[in-house]
Amino acid sequence: NAGVTQTPKFRVLKTGQSMTLLCAQDMNHEYMYWYRQDPGMGLRLIHYSVGEGTTAKGEVPDGYNVSRLKKQNFLLGLESAAPSQTSVYFCASSSHQPPYGYTFGSGTRLTVV
Amino acid sequence: GESVGLHLPTLSVQEGDNSIINCAYSNSASDYFIWYKQESGKGPQFIIDIRSNMDKRQGQRVTVLLNKTVKHLSLQIAATQPGDSAVYFCAENSYNQGGKLIFGQGTELSVKP
Question: Residues of B with CB below 8 A from A35's CB?
Fold first, then answer.
C-alpha cells in the first residue's frame, strides 16, 4: 500500500521554465490537496480538489494550475517558474467525510534559479 | 483572517522528560484539530486528533488537550525519546468548509540524550 506518491522528489528549474508535479494516491480518497512549505511559514494550501474533474483555489494559488482528470491523480503545474516558487511541495489526500485524516506524500523539493 | 499559530518555535527537552507543545487558534467555528509530526526530509505524519466536543484525548505516550474558552490546543508527549525530535504542527478544520486544514507554523522539538 503506497499511500500518496509524489514525483519527482527533487527538481531545479530556470526562471520561466514550466513543469508538472504529479501526485498519485491509492486509497480511493475523494479529496486531494497541494501545499507548499517554506521556512517559518508552515504549510500553505495552494489548490485542492473535492473530486474527479473539480478543483478550487486555496490560500496561495497564484502562479499555479492544477488538474484532477482521474480520481487517483492530482497534478500541479507551474507555467512560468519564478524564484519565489522555490519551496517544498506536499500533496495530501483525505476522505470526503470527517474526520478527514490527511495522508501526505514525501514532498518535492523545487529550486528555481 | 483565520490563523493557527504556535507560542514557541523551538523546544529543547532532556530525554525522559515530558514535552508540552502549545498552539493557539483563532477560528471559534473550528470543529476538529489535529497534531502532525514532521521529521526532516519527510511529509507530515498524523499523531492524534480531537473533536471540538472533547477537551482531552489520549494516545500512546501523547495527550491532546483542547481549551475552547481560550482557543488553545496542546500536545503532551510523555517520556520524550530521541525519536520524538521533529517539527510538530497543529492544524484546524471546520466541517462546514470541507476537508481543508489550516496549519500552524510549527514547533521544532529537540531531545537531548
Answer: 103
